[in-house]
Amino acid sequence: QVQLVESGGGLVQAGGSLRLSCAASGGTLRSYVMGWFRQAPGKEREFVATISWSAGRTYYADSVKGRFTISRSNARNTVYLQMNSLKPEDTAVYYCAASTQLVTVVRIQDYDYWGQGTQVTVSS
Questions:
Q1: Phi and psi of 56, rounded to 5°?
Q2: Full 3-state SS string of the chain
Q3: What pLDDT was estimated at residue 53?
Q4: Are the beta carbons of 47 and 83 closer than 8 angstroms?
């Protein structure tokens, strides 16, 4: 069973950038579709981005398209989320997740493994 650990969160001013990392242990990420989700206080967890196992296909929520980039290094067993032009509404706990589905997926229930999350706070 793969374990996921996120890192890279923090406090940043609006317009700034952060790079989140998701490192896996206990297994290889090579066989998984990977995704990033976020949950703001008082709101439901929502999809942010997903990437296929080969990194050949990515898909983003409309709210982050053009600002965020998901990538992966199967050799390093790590998935990344580069976040640029951050806005206060991006403030949330960000979660990394792994799915055994064969294609990129956006539903929470399609993901099998989750990290503990990393806090991202964007000040105005």
A1: -80, -15
A2: CCEEEEECCEEEECCCCEEEEEEEECCCHHHCEEEEEEECCCCCCEEEEEECCCCCCEEECCCCCCCEEEEEECCCCEEEEEECCCCHHHCEEEEEEEECCCCCCCCHHHCCEECCCEEEEEEC
A3: 84
A4: no
Could you tell me which of 67, 77, 64, 72 has the C-alpha nearest to residue 37? 64
Question: Beta 118-123 vs 10-13: how paired, if at all?
Answer: parallel
Length of the chain: 124
The rounded average pLDDT for each run of 10 residues, N- to C-terminus, in the chain (124 residues) is: 95 98 91 96 97 89 98 94 98 97 90 97 97
Q: Which residues contact 70 (CB under 8 A, 6 or more apart)?
A: 34, 36, 49, 50, 51, 58, 60, 79, 80, 81, 82
Find all residues with CB under 8 Å of 87, minimum gap 6, and list them: 14, 122
Instruction: Decide: 108 and 93 in contact? Cβ < 8 Å.
Output: no
Q: How far apart are CA 7 and CA 96, in angstroms?
A: 10
